[in-house]
Specification:
This protein is mainly alpha-helical. It contains four helices and no strands.
């Protein structure tokens, strides 16, 4: 129960993933920042990258951002 409370407290206190990436943290460093106190051990990594193969006609990201992502980020900020 104590570990669960500590994790919940840590999640409330941390910066957003975007802010951590803007600070130059790697995905491994982000995990360490979040879970380092819980005995995190990274045993493997995989190279990742973003690739969009959408056509111009199918680009819905601006619509998605306005309807889903922006309100979601506002909800997360409100919980802090």
């Amino acid at each position: 129960m104590i570990r669960k409370r500590n994790l919940e407290k840590k999640i409330i206190e941390i910066d957003s993933v975007t802010q951590m990436l803007d600070r130059g943290l790697t995905p491994e460093q982000i995990l360490e920042e979040i879970l380092g106190d819980f005995g995190l051990e990274i045993t493997d990594t995989t190279e990742t990258r973003f690739h969009c193969d959408c056509s111009k006609e199918r680009e819905h990201f601006p619509h998605l951002a306005k309807r889903i992502l922006i309100p979601l980020s506002q909800m997360v900020r409100a919980l802090r």
